[in-house]
Write a structure and sequence with these properties.
Elements (H helix, E strand, L loop, with lengths): L1 E3 L2 E5 L6 E6 L5 E4 L7 H10 L7 E5 L5 H4 L2 H7 L5 E4 H9 L9 H8 L10 E5 L4 E2 L5 E5 L8 E5 L4 E3 L5 E2 L6 E2 L9 H13 L4 E3 L10 H13 L1
Parallel strand pairs: 4-5, 6-7, 11-14
Antiparallel strand pairs: 1-2, 2-3, 3-4, 8-9, 9-10, 10-11, 12-13
């Protein structure tokens, strides 16, 4: 799914879970998120669809240390030119150990912490990211630390095309594709996650791309701002 020149959304479980690819003029690819453990086959097929191979993937960025984003990372790293993944420093140890960060202290949270989604295949970390850092990806990819869903959760803004990747701060799915918050039980701190959404509301962008749900192309920033304002009232 072409979002902007050189920027692609890769659905790995319908629109429910998305990865993203940034294609450089020289053929190198930066991949954002690797889906569940069964997602790599879809990612490889999507790369083939744009004339690329996993060996062209020179950088892999993970928005956070949850199994539906990091579950396929080790498989992709094993096929890629990248030797590990880039992730925010506060989620780096969880990626290395293959365990999710702490979740809500609730009945559902305890079930998540003990269930199959509580772990994934460990993967090496190439770089620990920091807030405000700008990566040399497609003319500039800026890191926005948006904690709450996990301590090291990040969103990304592509300066050249105006594409925002929200990560799991906000979902865009469900009834009539409305925006909603992630389930509190899988958040380390749901209140902090909602506070982080204000960062997205105040950032300039043209397209809002969600790791869960289809993108918003029309009035994207205004729609995100309206959502955050309504939910914060």
């Amino acid at each position: 799914m072409l979002l902007a020149p050189g920027v692609y959304r890769i659905p790995t479980l319908g629109d429910y879970i998305n990865s993203f690819a940034f294609l450089e003029d020289d053929g190198q690819v930066t991949l954002v998120d690797c889906g569940l453990s069964r997602a790599p086959a879809r990612i490889v097929a999507a790369l083939a669809g744009i004339g690329r191979h996993p060996s062209d993937v020179t950088r892999i960025i993970l928005t956070h240390a949850h199994a539906d984003h990091a579950g396929g990372a080790k498989q992709i790293v094993d096929q890629a030119a990248a030797e590990g993944v880039d992730v925010h420093a506060e989620d780096a140890d969880d990626i290395r150990s293959g365990t999710i960060p702490p979740v809500a202290a609730s009945t559902m949270g305890r079930l998540v912490a003990r269930g199959p989604m509580s772990h994934f295949e460990p993967v090496a970390v190439s770089r620990e990211l920091t807030d405000g850092e700008e990566l040399e990806v497609g003319g500039g990819l800026r890191i926005l630390h948006t904690p709450g869903h996990t301590p090291g959760h990040i969103s990304l803004i592509h300066q050249t095309t105006g594409v925002l990747i929200t990560g799991d701060v906000i979902f865009h799915m469900g009834w009539r594709d409305r925006m909603r918050w992630p389930v509190s039980a899988v958040c380390t701190n749901a209140t902090l996650n909602r506070q982080s959404a204000h960062v997205l509301a105040e950032t300039e962008y043209d397209i809002a791309a969600f790791t869960h749900g289809p993108e918003i192309r029309e009035r994207a920033r205004e729609q995100v701002r309206d959502f955050v304002r309504r939910k914060s009232a």
